[in-house]
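Quick one, tokens below:
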């Protein structure tokens, strides 16, 4: 009983510190799985009349919810921190994603329309209905905290600490909605995709066909945090092979990653065409490996859409631009 009393007192003090309603700890109702429920019970559905968000912050731990490889790449497990706050000019955005192996963050300025679109997302899913949610459990995982403040003074606040049972009603809260929104915002404002494991290696290969030449450009992350480009070229005419190597800043891989949409890449990695078609001419491919062990390969012998071929061309041009000692064409 003493431990329970301390937990209730801590929840009450935490609620006061963040400006949440004083009644947050008024109801203590143990529910299944040893979860303590201190949620505020609203007498009627919550309605937010304002459409002007002053500040938004959502932190959550996302578990391994998707078994499909494409979805796991698009919604990787880890800790997320999304913030969007109105400033003197536009809105300040913070996107952070972390795992035990790596933490990545981006800070940038958007125009105020980003706040309007975020409000539209909240209202489309009726997220206001989770206001007052407050559940606590000693289990690991499932943590979330949402703070939304409108210029009218209206608020949405929800918190869950420990275990899957503490997460709000999925009708009104799904982490994927916010991952999609902030990923798109990052792309829109030139931040690439800071949500997900870091790109560790990328290569472009061309070879095969009846004449058997081989050409490979590979950019990889080294243990010291730098990047290395290697070029391996066996000319078609039987001339001596060429090998070049460059040491580059680790951020070079981040620049390349900013060009990519990993969700689409995984979707485009489809079954190859016939072997006969592959043998008729040179074949080209690009492959990507990520810090979480996932990899994707796109090849012109695969049934990929036009956008996939466009990605292959961009990667080739990006890597070739780094090969500064290449013979002039």
């Amino acid at each position: 009983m003493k431990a329970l009393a301390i937990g209730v007192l801590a929840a009450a003090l935490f609620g006061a510190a963040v400006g949440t309603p004083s009644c947050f700890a008024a109801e203590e109702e143990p529910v299944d799985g040893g979860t303590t429920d201190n949620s505020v019970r609203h007498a009627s559905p919550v309605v937010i009349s304002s459409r002007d968000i002053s500040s938004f912050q959502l932190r959550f731990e996302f578990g391994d919810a998707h078994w499909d490889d494409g979805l796991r790449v698009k919604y990787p497990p880890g800790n997320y921190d999304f913030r969007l706050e109105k400033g003197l000019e536009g809105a300040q955005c913070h996107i952070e994603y972390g795992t035990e192996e790596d933490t990545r963050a981006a800070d940038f300025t958007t125009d105020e329309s980003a706040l309007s679109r975020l409000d539209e997302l909240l209202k489309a899913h009726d997220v206001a209905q989770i206001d007052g949610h407050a559940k606590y459990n000693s289990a690991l995982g499932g943590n979330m905290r949402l703070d939304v403040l409108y210029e009218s003074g209206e608020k949405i606040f929800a918190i869950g600490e420990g275990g899957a049972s503490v997460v709000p009603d999925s009708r009104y809260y799904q982490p994927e909605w916010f991952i999609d929104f902030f990923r798109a915002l990052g792309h829109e404002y030139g931040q690439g995709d800071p949500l997900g494991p870091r790109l560790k290696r990328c290569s472009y290969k061309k070879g095969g066909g009846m004449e058997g030449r081989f050409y490979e450009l590979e950019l990889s992350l080294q243990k010291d945090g730098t990047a290395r480009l290697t070029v391996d070229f066996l000319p078609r005419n039987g001339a001596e092979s060429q090998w070049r190597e460059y040491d580059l800043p680790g951020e070079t891989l981040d620049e390349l990653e900013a060009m990519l949409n990993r969700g689409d890449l995984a979707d485009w990695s489809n079954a190859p065409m016939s072997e006969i078609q592959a043998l008729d001419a040179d074949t080209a491919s690009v492959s990507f490996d990520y810090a979480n062990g996932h990899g994707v390969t796109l090849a012109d012998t695969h049934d990929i859409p036009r956008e996939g071929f466009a990605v292959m061309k961009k990667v080739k041009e990006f890597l070739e631009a780094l090969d500064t000692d290449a013979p002039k064409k």
